[in-house]
Amino acid sequence: MNNTQSNMSKWSVASRVFHWISAVLLLITWILILLYENLDSNLYIGLHKAFGVSLLFWMIARVINRVFTKAPPALPMPAWQLWVSKLSHFALYATLIAMPLAGLLMSVYGGRPVDIFGLFQIPVFVTPDRSLARFFNDMHTDIIWPMIIAFTLLHIAAALYHQFVKKDNLLARMK
Question: Taking a C-beta distance cutoff of 8 angstroms, is the pair 102, 108 a contact?
Answer without folding.
Answer: no
